[in-house]
Amino acid sequence: MYNATPFSSLTQGAGNNSGCPKNDGFKYPLYSTIFSIVFVVGLITNVVAIYIFTCSLKLRNETTTYMMNLVVSDLLFVFTLPLRVFYFINQNWPFGSTLCKFSVSLFYTNMYGSILFLTCISVDRFLAIVHPFRSRALRTKRNARIVCICVWVLVLSGSLPTGFLLDTTSREKNNATYCFENFSSKQWKSHLSKVVIFIETVGFIIPLLLNLCCSIMVLQTLRRPQTISRGGKLNKTKILRMIIVHLFIFCFCFIPYNVNLVFYALVRTKTLQGCSVESVVRTIYPIALCIAVSNCCFDPIIYYFTSETIQNSIKRKSQIDRSFDVKFSEALQSETSSNLQCSLRNLKAKVFHNESSV
Length: 358
Hints:
- The chain is mainly alpha-helical.
- The chain has helices spanning 8-11, 27-56, 62-78, 81-90, 97-130, 141-164, 185-222, 225-268, 275-293, 295-357; strands at 169-170, 177-178.
- It is 79% helix and 1% strand.
- A hairpin with a 6-residue loop joins strand 1 (169-170) and strand 2 (177-178).
- The model is unreliable at 1-17 and 351-358 (pLDDT under 50).
């Protein structure tokens, strides 16, 4: 279900007599190339992001909490990519069943963890813009940490069973081992179809609707004259650009794979039959998978556009601090000057008093 030849068992393996020709031979060089690029770019950008969040960024709020968890999710998956690249090049998994299951679990942890954490950022932005005063009690770092814990529990409860439910399979011809490929139709009907329903509903459809609804309501709020006069055109442009980038990355990375996954499950359970349907889904699957994996590289773009508001708040805070320092120094100078004048007057009075007594 995860990678390589998801439809190999349609033309070879248990219980398949479809006889449909295979047309996905391009997948191995495609996977090895794309995953290598994602490993290099994703590792560099996410390490830089985690350095900025932990070392450079002094002001932390609920949004940075969600982004930090998103970085951790991306890095966990990026670290497994060299094993996958080795598998794609050699078409053999020599690292054992446990490591295969773990890497597959991390793939789904990353994908649906990214979806849910991006949704948390979208909902947080919606509350901050549409309900800025009523949401103050909700938008706290403590509540954000609780939400992140719930997301991790939800994601792991879906990804771990997916990865550890089934075992690796082997090819008898050349004694090579697949990492999660040739599942039979029986396995799909009994286990995997239920997993697909769960992850598609909880991990994709509901978050997609939340992202769309929150973005639409934020855009409607920004169109109001009082919002423009209060925030200014510049802030409105930044928020609009942030929403567009957020939605584009979300839709570009996750919609192709998750839509294709539904058809994939229908074909594997033989709900949809026919070589033409099988050929189309089998061709789209590797491309959609590569696009989904690339979210590790696109997530730092979300950090950049979202952190603009954080940077602005830091600038405002520093400006307030500077103005306070200036006022304090002026007050101190004024107080020092008044004390000095008072001391001079006292000294002068004492001198005149002494002269009169003499």
